[in-house]
Specification:
The complex is a heterodimer. By secondary structure, chain A is α+β, with helices and mostly antiparallel strands. Chain A folds into 2 domains: 90 residues, 3-Layer(aba) Sandwich (Glutaredoxin); 96 residues, Up-down Bundle (Glutathione S-transferase Yfyf (Class Pi), Chain A, domain 2). In chain A, strands 2-1-3-4 form a 4-stranded mixed β-sheet, covered by helices on one side. In chain A, α1 crosses α7, α2 packs antiparallel against α3 and α3 packs parallel to α5. Chain A is globular and about 40 Å long. In chain B, β3 and β4 form a beta hairpin. In chain B, strands 2-1-3-4 form a 4-stranded mixed β-sheet, covered by helices on one side. Chain B is built from 7 helices and 4 strands. Chain B is globular. Chain B has 2 domains: 81 residues, Glutaredoxin; 96 residues, Up-down Bundle (Glutathione S-transferase Yfyf (Class Pi), Chain A, domain 2), CATH 1.20.1050.10. Chain B is an alpha+beta fold. The chains are: A alpha+beta, B alpha+beta. Chains A and B meet through β4, α2, α3 and α4 of A and β4, α2, α3 and α4 of B.
């Protein structure tokens, strides 16, 4: 049984979606985290080293996984029957690992840099500016329709929800390719099931 | 055959270190990329989407991003243990700490150096001082990130800590100093430096 440490409408929400996609047995443990406005508090029961969400605990063996790409990979490797995580040895495994790592190492810091008006230092930061990053993603999804081609994967759960989150913010990306991608991904039945469990 | 797209004294050096630890045959292709001082240019042979290093090809597989490359290599080449396999004890910590290097350590410390304020709850990483606290507490209790055994996490995250200490982007503590000395004492680290 997987326990998801979850705070509604945060980065942990999409893990409800992933767990629904996988058909994995899971329970939701609602937790609190510190908010940008200074409200909220860390929950001592949350095993994440910084008290953030998401984190998961697997009661089969007491394992704890934190950081979104690590959780996606752990879960898609553990529950392979849904076919949304290429296994070790699969021809798509390299691309899958790369896009998962890119999400946390490039995609997130890139958007956050734009949001904070930080000029990304070329060559010393591991990420690039949004202006350099987006053509790569748009090109990949144009050939797609998913990051791995015609195959929906756990990586799409991370990217599509992030684009959806930006829809009404200053970092929104005007792109018909991205709009169609988000619509396609979020139309999946498992996404609707996850929304029904958003509040626990 | 493994080909590493590499530039000496950059992030791709970690992958040289890992390949030396694994003891697998590999080739390196030295590529240029745009440097912080504006010199250098993208090399069109480099398959990295932004022309950065490292990137790696192996048979029909192409990978970019250090943590992805490390995981791919340690899952595929298992004659030398450099990390728990899927289903093996410790896989949870292995995946989590591998993701922590690009997702938390790097953005937290680089943005601190740039003077960017941390926005709690919005940024996917933690405030830099808190990152230092977590790393010190974790390593005070064990020799390596996964406990008694050296793994690829100690190359990526450990190598990152070593570099951040040298660049004075992290506060030097006895714990981190001893840890960095421990991991950089490995023969494969010396072979990477000499390469």
């Amino acid at each position: 049984m997987i326990t998801l440490y979850h705070r509604p409408r945060t980065r942990s929400s999409r893990f409800l979606w992933l767990l629904e996609e996988l058909g994995a047995p899971y329970q939701v443990k609602l937790t609190t985290t510190l908010s940008p406005d200074g409200t909220g508090a860390r929950d001592a029961a949350n095993p994440h080293p910084h008290g953030k969400v998401p984190a998961i605990m697997d009661s089969d063996d007491g394992t704890v996984v934190f950081e979104s790409p690590a959780i996606v990979l752990y879960l898609t490797d553990k529950f392979p029957t849904a076919g949304i995580g290429p296994a070790i040895g699969d021809k798509d495994r390299g691309a899958y690992l790369s896009w998962l790592a890119y999400y946390t190492g490039v995609f997130e810091p890139s958007f956050m840099s734009k949001f904070m008006n930080v000029e990304v230092p070329v060559g010393s930061a591991g990420w690039v500016s949004v202006e350099k990053m987006m053509p790569t993603i748009i090109e990949t999804l144009s050939n797609g329709p998913y990051l791995l081609g015609d195959r929906f994967s756990g990586a799409d759960v991370l990217y599509s929800t992030t684009f959806a989150l930006f829809a009404n913010t200053p970092v929104k990306q005007e792109s018909p390719v991205i709009e169609a991608y988000v619509k396609r991904a979020l139309a999946r039945p498992a996404y609707a099931r996850a929304q029904a469990r958003e509040d626990g | 055959m493994i080909t590493l797209y590499h530039s000496p004294q950059t992030r791709s050096s970690s992958i040289v270190w890992l390949l030396e630890e694994l003891g697998v045959p590999y080739g390196t292709k030295h590529v240029t990329f745009r440097r912080v001082d504006g010199t250098g240019a993208r090399d069109p042979v480099n398959p990295h989407p932004h022309g950065k290093v490292p990137a790696l090809t192996d048979g029909g597989d192409t990978l970019f991003e250090s943590s992805a490359i490390a995981l791919y290599l340690t899952d595929k080449y298992r004659a030398t243990w450099m990390g728990p396999a899927a289903g093996e004890a410790g896989r949870d910590a292995y995946l989590s700490w591998l993701a922590y290097r690009p997702g938390v350590l790097e953005p937290a410390l680089i943005l601190r150096r740039l003077g960017t304020p941390h926005v709690q709850g919005m940024m996917g990483w933690a405030e830099a001082n808190e990152v230092e606290e977590v790393l010190n507490a974790h390593l005070a209790a064990r020799d390596y990130f996964l406990g008694d055994r050296f793994s690829a996490v100690d190359i990526l995250l450990g190598g990152g800590i070593h570099f951040m200490l040298m660049a004075r982007m992290m506060s030097e503590t006895e714990v981190l100093k001893a840890y960095a000395a421990r991991v950089t004492a490995r023969p494969a680290f010396a072979r990477m430096m000499a390469a």
